[in-house]
């Protein structure tokens, strides 16, 4: 009798296992992943995005710092006068470490920012495409450049908002030099100091121009990158593509084009964001200009006022201060980020890619 019970339980267990496997296979065919597998896939996607952000940003850290210094320096006391001269000046006055000042803080921000951005883009593009396919006549529609632009904009806003306080203090840390009166010893100290002296709202100074700027910037990055890849795969111009797998070089070129378009459109908003982030920092004038004469120029009542004062006092060209080092930085940075993301996902074995 006991042996019959054992056999019966074993048989029931086998049947249950077979049923579970069949259900999982059905879900897989329908594109629905088991909870455990879905969580693992999400984690892998976040890791890939974080690694992509850290690698790409570290590769261009000196240009990132020079860009910020050019954006906020006073026109009456020029220290940094171009990309080559600026990099040489930093090397001469602060050494090799000066070229990477603020990079640790930057990576602490960009790693989660990039992870959230890439993952948010994947989820947003799926959701937007699903809603689009529910419209009559669009049942078999694919992602268009406009839909990719919308998904990229959503991803940019989410990622920017989630990590903005770290970006704000990173901007202040980056501006500090060896000769300046140090107020911040690191990211944690900067966050606590700003909270204590300026209040929680200060951590989001410049958030509005950042969000407005991130819509075309991130949106165009994803839209141009994915659309170029899609065009190369489908049209195969000049024999560039022989199969559906693009080479690393071709993907880098697509990323470079995406970065160039996105940063050119959004750059003025980035300049205004940086300037607004300096408001309320009592040592900002001495750090940027070496004297206190320009302190009044650091006072802005809002984004529109910052635009107006910048153009009135320094001309329209001031909105593109630091554009050259930023262009040299953004092109390889975006390219490296996209390619690293896809390569890390290949290594981790993630089925879903941004181009799917």
TrEMBL record:
Compartment list: Mitochondrion inner membrane
Keyword Transport carried by entry: yes
Keywords annotated in UniProt: Membrane, Mitochondrion, Mitochondrion inner membrane, Repeat, Transmembrane, Transmembrane helix, Transport
Predominant cellular place of this UniProt entry's protein: mitochondrion
Gene Ontology cellular component list: mitochondrial inner membrane
Domain of life: Eukaryota
UniProt cross-references to Pfam families, sorted A to Z: Mito_carr (PF00153)
Solcar repeat placement: 40-127, 143-231, 246-347
GO BP terms: transmembrane transport
Membrane topology: Multi-pass membrane protein
Keyword Transmembrane helix belongs to the record: yes
Family indicated by similarity: Belongs to the mitochondrial carrier (TC 2.A.29) family.
Protein name per its UniProtKB record: Mitochondrial adenine nucleotide transporter ADNT1
Organismal lineage: Eukaryota, Viridiplantae, Streptophyta, Embryophyta, Tracheophyta
């Amino acid at each position: 009798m006991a042996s019959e019970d054992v056999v019966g339980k074993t048989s029931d267990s086998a049947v249950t296992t077979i049923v579970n496997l069949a259900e999982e296979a059905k879900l897989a065919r329908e594109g629905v992943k088991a909870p455990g597998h879905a969580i693992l896939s999400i984690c892998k996607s976040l890791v890939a995005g974080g690694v992509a952000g850290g690698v790409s940003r570290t590769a261009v850290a000196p240009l990132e710092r020079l860009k910020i210094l050019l954006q906020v320096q006073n026109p009456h006391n020029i220290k940094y006068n171009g990309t080559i001269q600026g990099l040489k000046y930093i090397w001469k006055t602060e050494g090799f470490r000066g070229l990477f000042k603020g990079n640790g803080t930057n990576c602490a921000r960009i790693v989660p920012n990039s992870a959230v951005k890439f993952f948010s883009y994947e989820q947003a593009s799926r959701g937007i495409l699903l809603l689009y396919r529910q419209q009559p006549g669009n049942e078999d529609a694919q992602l268009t450049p406009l839909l990719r632009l919308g998904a990229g904009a959503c991803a940019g806003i989410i990622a920017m908002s989630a990590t903005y306080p770290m970006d704000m203090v990173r901007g202040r840390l980056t501006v500090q030099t060896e000769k300046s009166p140090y107020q911040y010893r690191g990211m944690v100290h900067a966050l606590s100091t700003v909270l204590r002296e300026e209040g929680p709202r200060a951590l989001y100074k410049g958030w509005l121009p950042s969000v407005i700027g991130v819509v075309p910037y991130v949106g165009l990055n994803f839209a141009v990158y994915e659309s170029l890849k899609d065009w190369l795969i489908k049209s195969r111009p000049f024999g560039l593509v022989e199969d559906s797998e693009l080479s690393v070089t071709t993907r880098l070129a697509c990323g470079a084009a995406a970065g160039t378009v996105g940063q050119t459109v959004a750059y003025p908003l980035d300049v205004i964001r940086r300037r607004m982030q300096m408001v309320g920092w009592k040592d900002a004038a001495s750090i940027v200009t070496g004297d206190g004469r320009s302190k009044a120029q650091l006072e802005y009542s809002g984004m529109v006022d910052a635009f107006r004062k910048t153009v009135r006092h320094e001309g329209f060209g001031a909105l593109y201060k630091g554009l050259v080092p930023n262009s040299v930085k953004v092109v390889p940075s975006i390219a490296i980020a996209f390619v690293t993301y896809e390569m890390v996902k290949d290594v981790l074995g993630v089925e879903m890619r941004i181009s799917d």
